[in-house]
Amino acid sequence: MAPITGVVITLDEADNIEACLASLARVCDELIVVDSGSRDATRELAERAGARVIAQPYLGDGPQKNVGPAQANHRWVLSLDADERLTDEAVQAIRGLDLATTTRAGFALRRRNFIGSRWVKTCGWYPDYCIRLYDRERTGFSDSRQHASVTTREVTRLEADIDHYSFANLSELFTKASGRFSTRAAKIMYLKGKRANALSPFVHGANAFVRKYVFQRGFLSGIDGVSVALSAAVNAYLKYAKLLEYQRDRKVRDAEDFDRVW
Questions:
Q1: Is the pTM of this model over 0.85?
Q2: Does residue 159 sit in the same domain as residue 186?
Q3: Peptide bond before 127: cis, by omega within 30 degrees of 0?
Q4: DSSP string of 46-64?
Q5: Per-residue b/e over 167-188, b at no fewer than 16 CB within 10 Å?
Q6: Could you give the 3-state DSSP secondary structure of residue 9?
Q7: What is the pLDDT of residues 185-229, one digit of tens each?
Q8: Fewer CB within 10 Å, N or C, the chain?
């Protein structure tokens, strides 16, 4: 098998980094961690696990994920988030690839998203294909500073999963949706010149719930499906409500640091 470099971006991921790197080490010959200023033991644990740690202030999702591959020793890169793990079937699928001769620029894996130990199969959370293994000489992550993905059409989907421990519990699901997720989105929209009106929060919140619960079959996942749909609605409602607040309340706007979006 052609050598692979495993890359992870981190910020205060001491609880996750060892398991993530151990997962990558099953198929990777080199490990790189790009850290954006962790104050916990992330860097020390990464180095102990055999990774090369690169210090890099956060540039946004896509630019940050391109830092490690630019300094990799190998052509093929396997990128995981710190809360993701390769399954046994993913390891076998990757080991079975002929990366030295393939014409593909990337390979996508299905992602199983969890709340606690519960795998949510609806709400658009599965199969959630993501390109994680790619040829850095032919492609890389987009320049998008949020929710970036590898940009190539020369991709093959592997019939294998990675596990994504998205949220520790339902409380975290709603806390992130109502907190930094919606605030960051509102700031980005404001800086781009987007505008909201009094109906925007309600319309977008309702649309998000219906999309997740009805069209993406969240009703089949019981209380977890309801919770994912509601958290999506809360996130959508609040990001437009916060955008409207930035537009109409100068005191709130002036108190916000728009240079710290990321």
A1: yes
A2: no
A3: yes
A4: HHHTTPEEEE-----HHHH
A5: beebeebbeebbeebbebbbbb
A6: strand
A7: 999 999 999 999 999 999 999 999 999 999 999 999 999 999 999
A8: N
